[in-house]
Amino acid sequence: MARIAGVDIPNNKKVEVGLTYIYGIGPSTALKIIEESGVDRTKRVSELSEQEISAIRKFIDSHLMVEGDLRKEKAMNIKRLMEINCYRGYRHKNNMPCRGQKTRSNARTRRGMAGRGSIKRK
């Protein structure tokens, strides 16, 4: 298994798909990484040479923020919103949708189970 950015990439996947296992890299970013590092798209991860893996690692380290750094930055952005008490921060604090969705009838995944769902019935 190739280890890139602290993540084990499965050997049986194509490089393009395998890179999407890294948090912060989607299909279009994976394609950009492959083109910039000069790796063949059709290769599988097990067929990559050490030079190709190091080229991919080098590109990711120098151009992208992935895994722990990205997670930390996202958490810090949400924390900043909550500290300055803006509308989005208030919604995050109260565990409600922040992007304008209605909450009267939906938003169950964000707000939790409906009030009477917590009452035990015989």
From TrEMBL:
<keyword id="KW-0694">RNA-binding</keyword>
<keyword id="KW-0820">tRNA-binding</keyword>
<dbReference type="GO" id="GO:0003735">
    <property type="term" value="F:structural constituent of ribosome"/>
</dbReference>
<keyword id="KW-0699">rRNA-binding</keyword>
<comment type="subunit">
    <text>Part of the 30S ribosomal subunit. Forms a loose heterodimer with protein S19. Forms two bridges to the 50S subunit in the 70S ribosome.</text>
</comment>
<dbReference type="GO" id="GO:0019843">
    <property type="term" value="F:rRNA binding"/>
</dbReference>
<dbReference type="InterPro" id="IPR010979">
    <property type="entry name" value="Ribosomal_uS13-like_H2TH"/>
</dbReference>
<comment type="similarity">
    <text>Belongs to the universal ribosomal protein uS13 family.</text>
</comment>
<dbReference type="Pfam" id="PF00416">
    <property type="entry name" value="Ribosomal_S13"/>
</dbReference>
<comment type="function">
    <text>Located at the top of the head of the 30S subunit, it contacts several helices of the 16S rRNA. In the 70S ribosome it contacts the 23S rRNA (bridge B1a) and protein L5 of the 50S subunit (bridge B1b), connecting the 2 subunits; these bridges are implicated in subunit movement. Contacts the tRNAs in the A and P-sites.</text>
</comment>
<dbReference type="GO" id="GO:0015935">
    <property type="term" value="C:small ribosomal subunit"/>
</dbReference>
<keyword id="KW-0689">Ribosomal protein</keyword>
<dbReference type="GO" id="GO:0005829">
    <property type="term" value="C:cytosol"/>
</dbReference>
<dbReference type="GO" id="GO:0000049">
    <property type="term" value="F:tRNA binding"/>
</dbReference>
<dbReference type="GO" id="GO:0006412">
    <property type="term" value="P:translation"/>
</dbReference>
<keyword id="KW-0687">Ribonucleoprotein</keyword>
<feature type="compositionally biased region" description="Basic residues">
    <location>
        <begin position="101"/>
        <end position="122"/>
    </location>
</feature>
<feature type="region of interest" description="Disordered">
    <location>
        <begin position="93"/>
        <end position="122"/>
    </location>
</feature>
<dbReference type="InterPro" id="IPR019980">
    <property type="entry name" value="Ribosomal_uS13_bac-type"/>
</dbReference>
<dbReference type="InterPro" id="IPR018269">
    <property type="entry name" value="Ribosomal_uS13_CS"/>
</dbReference>
<protein>
    <recommendedName>
        <fullName>Small ribosomal subunit protein uS13</fullName>
    </recommendedName>
</protein>
<dbReference type="InterPro" id="IPR001892">
    <property type="entry name" value="Ribosomal_uS13"/>
</dbReference>
<dbReference type="InterPro" id="IPR027437">
    <property type="entry name" value="Rbsml_uS13_C"/>
</dbReference>
